[in-house]
Every structure is written in C-alpha cells, then in structure tokens.
Write a structure and sequence with these properties.
- The chain crosses the membrane at residues 12-34.
- This protein has a domain at 1-46.
- It contains one helix and no strands.
- It has one helix at residues 10-40.
Length: 67
C-alpha cells in the first residue's frame, strides 16, 4: 500500500476521486432532504420588520459624547 498521494498510481487517484464524489453527493442529498422535510413541519421562516429607534453614538472611551 502506498501512503503518499504524490507517488500513487492512477487507480489510487481514481479511488480517491470516486470516494470524494460519493461523499459530496451524500452530504448534498442529506442537506436537501433535511431542508425539504423541515418545510412541512411549520418551521418556515417569516419576514420581520425592524424599525429604527433613536440614533446612538458609540465611542471607544468611557466619556459621554455631546453633539
């Protein structure tokens, strides 16, 4: 068994690519199925409106800034 990817032969590189591709498809499939399953349970996102309040001035010192 060759433990270096630099000196590995063609079949070893092909195995690495196939394993990475299968793992990527599996992760993507699980993510899509989890996302589609959550929409039926009522966990959909709703838009919230945030209104601006009074303006605030942030300083780095402990002194009060007067404008």
């Amino acid at each position: 068994m060759n433990h270096s990817i630099y000196s590995a032969d063609r079949s070893t590189h092909l195995k690495v690519v196939v394993v990475a591709l299968v793992a990527g498809i599996t992760v993507a499939g699980l993510g899509i199925s989890a996302r589609l399953g959550g929409a039926e349970d009522g966990y959909t996102q709703t838009a919230r409106v945030i209104k601006a309040g009074k303006p605030v001035m942030v300083t780095t010192s402990g002194e009060t800034a007067i404008r």
